[in-house]
Amino acid sequence: MNQQYIQSKYNLDCADHICVKRFRPTPYTHHGLYLGFGLVIHYDFSHICIVSLEEFAKGQPIFTVNSPIKYPKEVVMLRALSRLGEEKYHLITNNCEHFVRWCRSGSAIDL
User: Could you report the per-residue pLDDT of 21-40, keeping only the tens digit for each?
Assistant: First the structure.
């Protein structure tokens, strides 16, 4: 995965694919879509919600992911908002990374 460390939220742009590394219960990478104004939309294991960038990061460094983007940024954000409140999380078939990739490219995986 092509990731770049972000030193400040001011280096982020709307529709950026971002991620943080988490370590409990086991190490994993959590993904979200930056909406601007310090807000992130992401799958919070139970539902898709909007949180502050700080709440998303939980004290961990934020990275951008160079995932494919097929749509204009405004469309990416509308696609994300269309799924707000969704409760269909599945670790293998519909997780946080799948959500962000679908918003940006229309596909949950790289083809």
Answer: 998 888 999 999 999 999 99
